Amino acid sequence: MYQQPNESGHFGQFGGRFVPETLMPAVLELEAAYNEVKDDPDFLKTFHYYLADYVGRETPLYYAERLTEKLGGAKIYLKREDLNHTGAHKINNALGQALLTKHMGKKKVVAETGAGQHGVATATACALLGLDCVVFMGAEDIKRQKLNVFRMELLGAKVEAVHHGSATLKDAVNEALRYWVSHVEDTHYIIGSVVGPHPFPQIVRDFQSMIGRETKQQFKEKTGTLPDALIACIGGGSNAMGMFYPFVDDTSVKMYGVEAGGHGVETGKHAATLTGGSVGVLHGTMTYLLQDGDGQITEADSISAGLDYPGIGPEHAHLKDINRVEYVSATDKDALFGLKLLSETEGIIPALESAHAIGYLPELAQSMGKDQSIVVCLSGRGDKDVETVKAVLGGQNHE
Amino acid sequence: MSKQQLETRFKQILDQGDKLFVPYIMAGDGGLDVLNERIDFLADCGASAIELGLPFSDPVADGETIQQAGIRALKSGTTVQRVFDTLKQSKDRNIPIILMTYMNPVYHYGIDAFAKACVASGVSGLIVPDLPMEEEQAVTDVLHQYDLALIRLVALTSPVARQKELKKRTEGFLYAVTVTGTTGERQTFTDRVHQYLADLKVGATTPVLAGFGVSSEEQVKNLARHCDGVVVGSRIVKAFHDGEKDVIKALIEASKQ
After folding, report:
1. Which segments of the protein form a coiled coil according to its record (chain A) (predicted)?
2. What is the C-alpha to C-alpha distance for residues B250 and A191, in angstroms, rounded to an integer?
3. pTM of the prediction?
4. Which of B104, B107, B109, B196 is the mutation pick for testing A, counting most A CBs within 10 A?
5. Is residue A166 annotated as a catalytic residue, yes or no?
C-alpha cells in the first residue's frame, strides 16, 4: 500500500529536510509532536469537532448537472471546499496545525500567504485558539488581494509586506523562513501547502486528506462505485494532495493535477513547475522547480496569486515520476474561461486557482464517456478575485 | 589549496598565538573583475582564509546586507561557472578559499562537476547552510573523493548530542553560529554565547570559529577569546560596498595578538 514518505522524509528522490541547522531541532521536534498526535483519539476528536461545528464540514459533493450537459461528456461532480468557513480548503490545515502549535506549547505562529487564503485561514485559527499570528505576504500580492489583507488584520494578525524578488509567494516563504529561524524557540511555522522540509508535506497532506476521504464516501453513497477521474488545481499542491492521497491505491481512478500555465508554458511566463521545470532544492525540499541554467530560481507567472509559486510539493514530484498522476496545465485565459463557465452554468464563482481545474475540464470531460464521472476539487470561492477578474474582463456589460 | 594545507595553515596561525579571521565576501558584488583583487587585499591584511559566497536567488539563512549583495552580484551577470573561471586565473594564491552557497546551485551544477571545478580553481572546502547532516551524504561522498572539506555549522539551538556529532563530522573548522537568526550585524549577543563556544571547544579536533552577527573589533576580540577565531560577513560586505578598506584592516587586526 502507498505510504509515503520514508523515515527521513523522502518521497522517492524528492523531499527531505534542507534547512539551516538552527531550524533542524524545531523540524525534529515538530516531527515528534506530529507523531504523538496523528493517531491520538483526543487530538483527532478536537480536530474533528472544530471541522464539523466551526468549519462546517463535511462539505457537499455536488452533481453539476448543467455543467455536465453543457460540456456533453463525463458527469461532473464538485467537491465544495469553497463552502468551508473562510472560503477555501486552507482552513483544514491551518486549524490542524494551530492545534498542533498548542500541543507543542508554543504561543506564536508565523505563516506565509500568496492569494491571502492561507493567511486568512491561519489568522482565523489563531483567533479561535488564542495564538499570536504574523503573516508574510508579497507586496505585489498585497496589491492584488487587498481585501484579504484587511480580513487578516480584522482577525488580529499582523501582515508584513515582503518587497524582495518578485514580491510574491516565493519571497513570502523566504521571509517566513527567516522569521522562523529568528523566533524558533517560541514560534511555529504554519506552512500553507504540501511544501517545505519534512514533516510539513506529510502534515499538510494529512490535514487535507479528509477532502479525498469524504469524496470517496460520498461518491460511493451516491453511485455505489468510485469516480473515474479526479481533477484539482496545483500551486504548491495542498488541495490536490488532500483529494488524491486517499485514492492513490485505487488504480482505476485517474488523477489530473492542473498547474498554472500563465501566458502559456511555451512562453516561459508560467507557474507550471512539473510541466516546465527541473529538479532542485528550494524552501527545504528537493522537488521540481522553475530555475535558470545556473540554478537560480526564476519568477513564476500566473493570474492567480495562489498558484504563483516556482516549486511544488515533493509528493507530487514523486507521483509524477511514478506516473500515478497526470500533470497538465491551464493558461490564464483557460482559467478565466473556467471561471465564467462555472459562474454562468452553476451559479458558483470559483476562486481563480480552482478555475484552472475548471478550465481544463472541457478537454477532459469530452474525452470521456457519458457514463463516466469526474470529481473536481473546487478548492475555493471567487469573491477575493472579483477585482482582478473585473480588471481583465473589464466588466464589459456596464461600461 | 588542499584540505590539508588549509588545516596546516590554521594550525600555524594558532600556534603563533593569533586567532583565525575568515572574512566573507560575495563573488560578483562590485563585478567579478574585482574578485581576485579583493581576495589579495584580504590576504595582505592577514585574513586566515576567505569564505566566498556564490550568489543564490533565495538565500534563507542570510539577512538584508548579504541578500542585497547577492542581488547585485546576480544583476551583474555572476554565474557559478564565471566564478570558477575567475578563481582559476590566480589559483596559486597563498590563502585558502572556502565556497559558501546553498544546495540548489551545487545540485544544479552537478555535485561531482562542482567538486571537480572546486579542485581546478584551488578551492579548499564548502559551506552549505541548508544542508544539515541528515541530508549531507550525497554531497560528502563526492567531496571526500576530491579531498574537499565540508565545514559544518552548529547552532545555539542544536542539542548537545547534535553538537557532539557535528564536532566529530566537521572538516577544516567548526562554524559556530552565534545568533538564533540570519546573518547580519548585531549590537549584542545572548549571554549563552560564551559558554556555548567554550563547550564546543571541549574535545574539538578542528578549530571552532564564531560567526553570524560579528561586526566590531570589540566583538572580534571578545568572541575570539572563547574560541579559535571569527567569521565576519555582513560588515565586510558592507565595507567593500562602501569603500571602507580601513574598517576591514582594523577588524582583521583585532584578531591578532
Report:
1. none
2. 44
3. 0.96
4. B104
5. no
| Contact residues, chain B, for A164 at CB < 8 Å | 67
Q: The CATH number of A10-52+90-200 is which of 3.40.1740.10, 3.30.930.10, 3.40.50.1100, 3.40.640.10?
A: 3.40.50.1100
Q: B3-254 belongs to which CATH class?
A: alpha beta
Give the angle B156-B160-B166 at the CA atoms, nearest 5°: 80
Coil vs helix vs strand at B244: coil
The Cα A335–Cα A304 span in angstroms is 9
Question: Span A160-187, mean pLDDT?
Answer: 92
Model confidence at A359: pLDDT above 90: yes
Task: Identify all chain B residues contacting A165, using CB atoms and an 8 Å cutoff.
Answer: 57-58
Q: The complex's ipTM?
A: 0.96
Q: Are A136 and A162 in contact (CB under 8 A)?
A: yes
Chain B residues with at least one Cβ partner in A under 8 Å: 55-61, 63, 67, 74, 79-81, 102-109, 129-132, 134-135, 152-159, 162, 166, 177, 180-182
What distance in Å separates the CA atoms of residue B173 and residue A392, rounded to the nearest whole number? Answer: 57
Domain A58-87+209-393 class in CATH = alpha beta
What is the number of residues in chain A?
A: 399
Query: What phi and psi values does residue B113 have, to the nearest 5 degrees?
Result: -65, -40
